[in-house]
Amino acid sequence: MVIIGITGTLGAGKGTLVDYLINEQEFAHYSAREFLIREITRQGLEVNRDTMTTVANKLRALHSPAYVIEELYSQASESGKNAVIESIRTPGEIEFLKKQGNFILVAIDADPRIRYNRISLRASETDHVSYETFKNSEQREFTTTDPNKQNLGKCISMADLVLNNNGTVEDLYTSFIREIKLKGWSI
Asked: Which CATH superfamily hosts domain 3-182?
């Protein structure tokens, strides 16, 4: 079983790469975002980016800095299939997955204006924000010393592979395939 973890900036194309892994490589998909939405709904809270961040941070503080990903990994390991775990946000989550073996962390980034345009088009429940709010949310999640909070900057720096996604969907797929082959990884 190979686990590919996906981290990166807001709207960079994490879900797009996940779609490729599901549809072209037959990976099972486990989403931290969906896990958190289920928890938020269970608690009767409003689904938005701030609530997602707050609930995730509380779960990590209560259980462990890798709690959400530990839960998703448990589900993935039961299936035994190659899996992609999307929306890795803390170094603790990465450290946990690296200890499990057969893990590749892919980070995706793109120009902020391109990413904002993408989330505006995507229009999910957490994407109805101004550009200023988008930038502030990302800044809040980019660095911290608290192991229970999002630290995208550190996660990106821990990646085995960093992809720049300023182009088309096909460009992203081509770049990913090329980099996987260059590294000699089998997926």
From this structure: P-loop containing nucleotide triphosphate hydrolases (3.40.50.300)
The per-residue pLDDT for range 27-50, each reduced to its tens digit, is 999 999 999 999 999 999 999 888
- 137-149 residue pLDDT tens: 888 889 888 888 8
Task: Please state the domain extents for the chain.
Answer: 3-182
Q: Which residue has the higher pLDDT, 62 or 126?
A: 62
Q: Under 8 Å CB-to-CB from 147, ≥6 apart: which residues?
A: 60, 65, 90, 91, 92
Q: Give pTM, 2 decimals.
A: 0.89
DSSP string covering 28-96: EEEEHHHHHHHHHHHTT---SHHHHHHHHHHHHHHT-TTHHHHHHHHHHHHH-S-EEEE----HHHHHH
Distance, in Å, from the CA atom of 184 to the CA atom of 156, rounded to the nearest integer, reads 21
Count of Cβ atoms closer than 10 Å to residue 34 Cβ: 13
Partners of 106 in the β-ladder: 6, 161
89 close to 56: Cβ distance less than 8 angstroms? yes
DSSP 112-154: HHHHHHHHHHH--TT----HHHHHHHHHHHH--S-TTS--HHH
